[in-house]
Each structure stands twice: as C-alpha cells, then as structure tokens.
Amino acid sequence: MAESKDAHIVEIPVDEEHQQRKSVSAMQHHPLTEISESPGHILLLKLWQREEDLFGRRIAIKETRMDTIRREIFQLCCFFFVFHGFFLTILFMSSVNSSEERTICRKWWVPSTLSAVTSNVIVALVQMKLCRYWKVFRQLAGERSDNRALTRCIQELRMKGASFDLSKEPPYNGRRMKSSSVQVKWKPLTWCSQYLISLCLLCFAALLFPTCKFILCGVS
Q1: Is 92 within 8 Å of 215 (Cβ atoms)?
Q2: pLDDT digits (tens, 9 = 90+) for 134-164
C-alpha cells in the first residue's frame, strides 16, 4: 500500500539550466551585445549619437532665434501702426485748429512725404527681418531632415547589430535637393506667402499718402 501511494506522486523537474542557457544565448545574439563586442560598430554608434546630440542643440538654437525674430517683427508692426495713428491724429488736429487752410493745403506733400519715408524705413526693416526669418527656417528644416535621417540610421544599426554595413552614411544631401526643387517650382507663390506682411504694410503706406492730402485739404 505504501508503494502504491508513493507511485502516484510524480515530480516534474524544471530544467532551469536549460532556460538559463537559452537566455544567455539570446543575450549573446542580441544586436546590442553584438555592437558592444565590435569596436567598429560601437564607435560608429557613439559618433552618431554625438552627432544626434549636436543636431538637437542646433535645432534648439535656431528655434530660439526664430522666436526672437518673430517678436521683433511684431514690435516693428506695432510701431508702424502706432506711429501712423499718432501722426494722423496730430495732422487732423492741426488742420482743424489752423486758420490758414490754403497755406496748409499747399504743403500737403510735406506730411505725406514724411509718412512715406517713415513707412518705407519700417517696411525695409520688416523685410530684412523676414528674410532672416525664412533663412533660419530653411536651415532649421534642413537640420530636422538630417536629424531624422540620422535617427533612422541609428535605429537600423541597433536592430541589425554586427551585420550593419559600416560604410553606410545617413542620406543628408538627397532630401535637401528634393526640398529645394519644390521651392523653385512654387517660388512665386512661396514668395508672396512668405512676405505677405511687407506687402500689406506697403499697401497701407500707399493709402496713407493721399490720406494726408484729404485731411489737410478736404476738412472744412
């Protein structure tokens, strides 16, 4: 009876050593392990990671520069409208309170010229800021495109391990040429959309030139 009871107890041993061997072999064939054992691959990975960090820093600097230029353009536009608001108010008050209407009407070109010169100076400054802004924007687009290409190469290196081709380089120039061809194709439309602020300011300044004559000669 004792032997029959012991016969029903079955113990299934767990082959821990076999599982450990599987895990060790899996770790040995892991791509990161292969990279750590290959001096060329680990050096390439470190170089690309350092270059990726430099791309991130340059992108952050250019984004900060674009924010600064946007604030400067906004300040110039505010100064443009504030100046002409005060200018037209003073011009209107002087024409109403003056007793020599004919003399003032003959010299209408003086405030008109002053308004036109001031407007052209401000518009020129805005145009310079816009040119600088879009130049930094194109540089930033190129940096981001190169950073994405480098990131894909780093991911491919980590996935392939020692089988990765060390002679492979990130495709930097191809994307820049592709983007530049698109810009040339749509250059007129792109130019109008990029410098719309300058065009609007010029149109407003052109309307102000005859407005000065209307204020001085048309107010009774």
Answers
A1: yes
A2: 999 999 999 999 999 998 888 888 888 777 7
Neighbours of 164 (CB within 10 A): 21
pLDDT in tens, 33-76: 777 777 777 888 888 889 999 999 999 999 999 999 999 999 99
First to last CA, the chain: 131
What does the DSSP assignment read for 176-196?
HHHHHHHHHHTHHHHHHHHTH
How far apart are alpha carbons 159 and 156 in whole angstroms? 5
CB atoms < 10 A from the CB of 46, how many? 10
- Return d(Cα 32, Cα 44) in angstroms, integer: 13
The structure tokens listed for 69 are: 């230029």
DSSP-derived secondary structure letter, 14: -
For residues 142, 148, 152, 154, the Cα torsion angle rounded to the nearest 10 degrees is 90
